[in-house]
Amino acid sequence: MLQLTLYGTLGCHLCEEAEALLGEAHHPQGVAIDLVSVDIADHDEWMARYGLRIPVLRHTNSDRELDWPFGPSEVRHFLNNLT
């Protein structure tokens, strides 16, 4: 299973777009995706790190990140390069 985190905040329309896009994403090799959305406003460290970059998609195991803006092709490329 591929574990991904989407960093964002409540009320962020870009974060909502990213979450909808990722809800439709499929790993090219059929690996299951576990996506967790977190609100950076709840954590000072996340706010400092991601505040100006959200939404940010992060692969938990490799710490690789994909900053907004991204679309389906960028997400596919990101997922392809994780395995």
Brief sketch in words of this structure:
Helix 1 (13-23) links the parallel strand 1 and strand 2 (33-39).
H-E string? EHEHEEH
- Mean pLDDT across all residues, rounded? 93
Q: Main β-sheet: number of strands, strand sense, barrel status? A: 4 strands, mixed
CATH homologous superfamily placement: Glutaredoxin
The spatial strand order of the largest sheet comes to 2-1-3-4
**Content of β-strand:** 25-35%
How would you describe the overall organization of this protein?
This protein has 83 residues and is of the alpha+beta class. The protein has one domain: 3-Layer(aba) Sandwich (Glutaredoxin). Helix content is 33%, strand content 25%. It has 3 helices and 4 strands. A 4-stranded mixed sheet has the order 2-1-3-4, covered by helices on one side. Strand 3 and strand 4 form a beta hairpin. It is globular and about 35 Å long. The mean pLDDT is 93.
